[in-house]
Amino acid sequence: TPHVGDWEAGSAFMTCHGVRSFYAIAKPPRNRRVSEHLLETREARGIGVLPRRGGMNLVAKLLLSGAWVGLLLDHRPNGKHLVAPFFNRPALCERSAATLIRRMKAPLVFGATYMTERRWHYHTVVTAIVEPEELAGLDPVGIQTRINAELERLILKAPDQYFWLHD
Description:
- The protein is an alpha/beta fold.
- It is 38% helix and 25% strand.
- Helix 3 (56-64) runs parallel beside helix 4 and helix 4 (96-104) crosses helix 6 (140-157).
């Protein structure tokens, strides 16, 4: 998913609907109290939290064990990256997700949890499930281009809920 809607509610949705082993890669906020609160809340919901730095190294092992891994894929990459179109502009993208997907042959599930007009009520959608066969033969840039197209669809469903503050 991209940073659209309420990704905290979205991760809670996963564990509330039968996903027994769910992990998310997260960069902790700089404010220690906020960071501790978020970590406690996520863990209380049954969400395993992987660090942004080094977390991708654990993903392959988790996927092999049957776990689900949630990623916010519209971050600016650290280190190695690739360039793929995002809203018709070249964008620096994380290379690790596309590389891992090729290697693991895991399906990609695209979704978001949008806030509704009613307070504390959300609408979760899954817009696409991309099977590994659909990505066969694509290089990491081709995979990332497909990922970005799906992220764009999610953002365009509620552009007013797109919250991207990273440089």
